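User: Second chain of the day. Same drill as before.
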Amino acid sequence: MSESPKPLRYVDIGINLSDPMFAGSYHGKQAHEADLDDVIQRAKDVGCEKFMVTGSDLVESEEAIKIAQKYPGFCYATVGVHPCQAKLFDEYPGGPSKMIDELRKLAIESKEAGLAVAFGEIGLDYDRLFHSAKEPQLKYFEAQLDLAIEIQMPLFLHSRAASEDFERLVGSRLDKLPKGGLVHSFTGTIEEMERLVALGLDIGINGCSMKTQENLDVVKELPLERLQIETDGPWCEIRPSHASAKFLIGAPELPKSVKKEKWQKGLMVKGRNEPVAIARVAHVIAQVKGISVEEVCEAAWNNSIKMFGLGVKSQ
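Assistant: Same format as last time:
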């Protein structure tokens, strides 16, 4: 494949930069100094120009907005409550309606300030009902979908083992959201992907989306005009045991990594995924689809900018 002179550029649409690991804290213990500046710079060095920092509850959404304020023009936030945190609505001081009011206020203010670009991470997760039961998940997913429509924010979505309920609730509302939404960290079947695409949703692909051969078959069939890419760091790295690993030949090398206890400035931490790895995600997708990395990057960039804006004036 001929090399394009145009530099590659990426949007990491799912990165958990507010996670304590990026402040050097693991399971409540400080292992090394905070290195978020270095993490972001490493990603910029490979062409990652935009980061969507995931909010997964009220507090984390506020943290995501603070990161967007600290790195203007590069980092943008999502605001929402993850399905595994749905129980927080019933536990909130003042009750669920008070928490919804707080979410509404935060989303409106941060959207108007140009800091938040999507409502999420919201959805359904029937794989982990031990975190939050099905009933509160359904109830507060609906409430948050209606909030996103009220505020007119595109959706940043999560769906695990809940396709029927998920598609019903989202599908009945998408006509009220001109920018639609994205199902991030997708691990479902080809049939599920095809139904989501038919609804008008984009699909986010990361290391967790390419663990198995079945996952890779989905990536191969996913239309380019519905593709967005992400790392979901500090999780979802591409591991040697994954079906995708065989496609890493010729992929950009990652900086040296060491155990967290041996950390030094400029090094990655073993087992802590970073947005610099976005280049490897794009490489594997290109290999699986039999197209150039340039095509993957350009399609994903255009899809992300079209849906989320990210401070880029539309052509």
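The mean pLDDT is 96.

User: Great, on to the next one.
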